[in-house]
Amino acid sequence: MSLPQIRITYCTQCMWLLRAGWMAQELLSSFGQELGEVTLVPGTGGVFTITCNDTLIWDRKRDGGFPDAAQLKQLVRDVIDPERDLGHSDRKGHKAKGEA
Question: 6: burial class by Cβ within 10 Å (0-12, 13-18, 19+)?
């Protein structure tokens, strides 16, 4: 089984490389060896998307801006390990997808 792959596509025209790099660092710090790779992909036209295993988990245009670090970690966790507790950065009362 291969490890999850994160892809952060950011707009070079908007100068979002530092933001993309910071988000990659946050994910690598939290998930460490649980991720196979985190890839930064330059783009244009105001793009800022994050995918996990080719599943779109964040789109700046669709979702309205940028996720904060805790929110991004929760989104990735929900794809790669829904039962994992993220500790202090986890939302209160987290329920895995599909639970009432």
Answer: buried
Cα three-residue angle 94-33-27, rounded to 5 degrees: 50
Q: Match 């690598």 to its residue by tokens.
A: 28
User: Residue 23 in contact with residue 40, Cβ under 8 Å?
Assistant: no
Amino acid found at 11? C
Question: For residue 99, what are the CA distances in angstroms to 5, 16, 89, 91, 93?
Answer: 26, 36, 20, 15, 12
H or E stretch including 38?
Answer: strand 37-43
Q: What is the mean pLDDT of each run of 10 residues along the chain (100 residues)?
A: 94 98 97 94 98 96 96 94 75 46
Helix (H) or strand (E) holding 73: helix 69-80
Q: What pTM was estimated for this model as a whole?
A: 0.84
